[in-house]
Write a structure and sequence with these properties.
Distance between the termini: 23 Å
Order of helices and strands: EEHEHEEEEEEE
CATH topology: Jelly Rolls
Number of strands: 10
Structural class: alpha+beta
CATH architecture: Sandwich
CATH class: Mainly Beta
Largest sheet: 7 strands, antiparallel
CATH superfamily: q2cbj1_9rhob like domain
Radius of gyration: 15 Å
């Protein structure tokens, strides 16, 4: 574990990113985006439980950092996929105040780019002034509180940048 700053942690995870990439890209190509910029990975999408395994690893790390955690009844083990490439981008500054306590992003694939801001994650203060950017690395998980405003940036490659959002909703956490 490495603390990037007092509220932004990162971990290296060992999961089957090739399988995750295939599942996410396949669903993205057939998904009808009506609102939002991501989509859920359901158990039907994940017959080998690679995303459920990811969720459990994320929960275990969150519990190690902030625990013992007591899950809220509204907690869901759903993972949410976000993809971007040269042909597809749906961004926007946002937080996860309404949907989680602890927010995590696992980077399944991060294409090599020539521009330093392609594919980065910008982190903002409450007035939406950029505080810093994080350059993601495939296989890495970042974890932060729900109120942290952020925005992924587009990559201009044929290959997809694939990230998976994992939200944990807890009872009685100190920063709420």
């Amino acid at each position: 574990m490495k603390a990037v700053n007092p509220i932004f942690y990162k971990f290296k995870l060992n999961v089957d990113t090739a399988k995750m990439y295939a599942i996410a890209v396949n669903k993205h190509k057939n998904y009808v985006y009506t609102r939002g910029n991501n989509f859920p990975i359901t158990p039907q999408d994940d017959p080998d439980n690679v995303f459920d395994n990811l969720y459990q690893q994320v929960f275990d790390r969150a519990n190690m950092l902030f625990g013992p955690l007591e899950l809220d009844a509204r907690n869901s083990r759903t993972c949410w996929a976000y993809l971007t490439n040269k042909d597809f981008y749906r961004g926007g500054i946002h937080d996860h105040m309404r949907t989680s306590t602890i927010t995590s992003v696992f980077y399944v694939n991060v294409p090599k780019t020539n521009q330093h801001r392609e594919g980065v994650l910008s982190v903002y203060d409450q007035k939406e002034v950029e505080m810093f950017t994080y350059t993601p690395v495939a296989g890495e998980l970042i974890m932060f509180p729900n109120y942290l405003k952020h925005q992924p940036h587009q990559v201009f490659t044929d290959e997809y940048r694939v990230s998976i959002n994992i939200e944990i909703r807890c009872k009685d956490v100190w920063w709420i």
